[in-house]
Design a protein that fits this description.
Shape: globular
Order of helices and strands: EHHEHHHEHHEEHE
Structural class: mainly alpha
Number of strands: 6
Radius of gyration: 22 Å
Distance between the termini: 70 Å
Strand content: 5-15%
Amino acid sequence: MKIVSEFTRAGPAEILRASQKDDVLREKIESSLYDILLQVGGNKALIKYRNSLSALSNLIYFGSTTLSGLQTLGEEYTGILQFDSDNSNIPALKMRILMVLLSSFGQKLVLTALQKVENSDCLKNDGELRPEAQLQILRVITWLKLFIPILERLHKAVFYWSGFYGQFSKRLTGIQYVLVRQWLKDRKSLYGFKILSVVTLVYAALSGATESINFAQLSADELRARTQPTHSKVVRPLRDSCPLCLEERHSSSVTPCGHLFCWHCLIEWLHTEQRCPVCREPVQPCRVVPLHNYL
């Protein structure tokens, strides 16, 4: 007899409340790591390793709870437990390890792998591949980078509708939640989440259409600009350099607060934290403005 039959399956309301509670604690860990890195390595180390702090804080938090066989504080707060895909027992240690690693490093590893391929020698102008093949590979890589955020929105839409798998890493590993304290089941919000699912799906569709139009208008020169090697090590004037990569800016883009960055550097940063890297003002990716013919 399956143990999960003795409990009520957790809904999106309980899972979201647990996730929000966990996020508060993870952000405190990330803030502490931020301060330590700034004091030890300075601004240069902070710019270099800033994108890794979120993954590291995630690993520290869930490593001390989920991997140890304990509830997270959010799960304890809402009274939910993790169960495996067979709904018969708590997830095995290897599945918990895989889930935590995917949650912490999954997206970063995919983006890093795409960046490695994008910067590989075979995609340079003097590479072994023909220019047509290089251009096609660059287009596929760019399309994948644009598709990842849209895939996350689609996952959220499915979660809001079904109530299963609040995180993409849990969907891949088949880890679900059950509600131990059944009297806390929030049934009134189910219809609200159905509406939210539809809204999220529409937003994902509109975002996908917008990105598809921008992708179709992307020229070959703009694609190749990302893989051009830097032949000179001459220090550029500060106004011509990107604060993130510390190199000469390519495809200059401006944030609402007025700071200039390389387009791909800024978008990659905003994938992990939607704040300006310079002044820490909130920045939505849709508010970034690419500057054409900017000198």
